[in-house]
Design a protein that fits this description.
Helices cover about 20% and strands about 0% of the residues. It has about 40 residues and is mainly α.
Length: about 40
């Protein structure tokens, strides 16, 4: 678990969500969070 690497038991879980978002002000209109999440 990544938290173990930092010596803490804390972690974040985003059920059914994505951890990335499109820039609402400057991003393209067609951008979706899934596209950003799946960038190489």
């Amino acid at each position: 678990m990544l938290a173990n690497r930092f010596g803490t038991p804390w972690f974040v879980n985003i059920p059914g969500g994505t951890s990335a978002r499109c820039d609402l002000l400057n991003g393209p209109a067609w951008c979706t969070p899934t596209q950003v999440e799946n960038l190489p």
